[in-house]
Design a protein that fits this description.
- By secondary structure, the protein is of the alpha+beta class.
- The protein is built from six helices and 14 strands.
- The strands form four sheets. The chain has a seven-stranded antiparallel beta sheet, with helices on one face. A three-stranded antiparallel beta sheet has the order 1-13-14, with no helix packed on it. It has a two-stranded antiparallel ribbon with strand order 7-8.
- About 25% of the residues are buried.
Length: about 210
Amino acid sequence: MRIEFDPEAVGRTPFYKLLTSVVVPRPIAWVSTVSAAGTCNLAPHSFFTVACVAPPIVQFTSVGRKDSLRNVEETGEFVVNFAPEQLFEQINETATDFPPEVGEFEAVGIAREPSLRVKPPRVAASSVALECELHSTVRLGDSTVVFGRVVHAAVDEHVMDDGHPEVTRLRPLARLGKDEWATLGEVLERPRIRYADWDGGAGGDGFGGQGGS
């Protein structure tokens, strides 16, 4: 038996908590930006994914008017820094609601390094940095989706294996519901099945699922 939820009847915050508990795990965009006044901001955003391949575009959502959003609107640039397991405490600390004039790099004690194509710095200890120029934003209710064109990517050689980032070396963090986070669990590998090779799938009988004699 299922429990039914009407978003209008439940209300914003309880339904937000429901969504973030079932849309899991969520990758984290650790977004660095610079304000028009020159303050460097760093904040994690767990509403994050790839939006397009060609051109390469990533997206993150600012729930409300966060510093990351204001800075991107002012300057048109940001960096998505990879959020690894070993930086868990620092990532969580940068989610603190510091005032706009306080930079998280300094407040939390996070080392930075220059980016190649954009002004916002990279997190020096993060294994991957995606340098982005603002493509567009879309306002949806109380949130804003930020689309950034990736103009440069920098990947630590130590996480590479045969020319590709290897997930067990990356050790990504993910967000769950409430105050819960997740680390990398068991990794499953299975090639995608071409239709020409389809035999009914795991529950089939080798005859397209229709049975045979």
